[in-house]
Amino acid sequence: MTTILIDPQFCGPRLSGNGGYVSGLLASIIGGPAETRLSAPPPLATPLDVASEGERVVLRQGEAMIGWARPAQPEVTSPPRPSSEALSAARQHYLDWAEEGHYLPYCFVCGHKRRPGEALRIFAGPIDGTPVNADLWQPDTSLAAADGLVDTPFLWAALDCPSAHSLRLAPGTLVLLAGMTAQIYRRPAPGEALVAAGWPVESRGRRHRADSALLDEAGEPIAVANALWVTVPPQLFASLTAENADNAPFNSPYVEGDDR
Which Gene3D superfamilies does the record associate with it (predicted)? Predict the structure, then answer.
């Protein structure tokens, strides 16, 4: 058994880890295509135990289960890579929407309040005339592992939020990641001009399925994922929006204009 701590830099909501990033940490231990499930918000800067239990890698805080991963393969059919013009328009649409009411503006992946260079800042807006949300993403050099290529947890993170935004849910609705099944075909070098794209698959009640892909300059997928999202109930929605508001007490070196 080993112990890990999730750095506050990698938050989704301000007080818990980004689901895609945490899923990618567990998948890195599996060492290949994997399925993950998250059963509780992953706490930040808190010792968490990681242990192998049969085919699964399990993450716990004390006796409480946080999540698990096991070998599995996603089934994804990727869309064409959008044009530069479509991507530019989609990003601007996202930023206009975010200024009006992004409920998690400090998310490591999609938070528009985060500083360049210390968060992914993937702003996947709607591609006009399609069900796809997408953004151009050029990974920062800080995301590289020892071999010089982008580390696996960051690729899982990049696959996360575009699929959530593709659901295009009504105002007053927030989803959190319940699990992913993802495969990395090729780890890119920092600076590659990738497209992070997501699109909806199915919604039933509070449960939503969506797929995502990272597309290279030739339009080929280098990573793909199936994701399961769950709409949070009203009481949790109220709590999360209060915690993530601009005037909420928060102490982090990773957000724009946050000197508290």
Answer: Hotdog Thioesterase
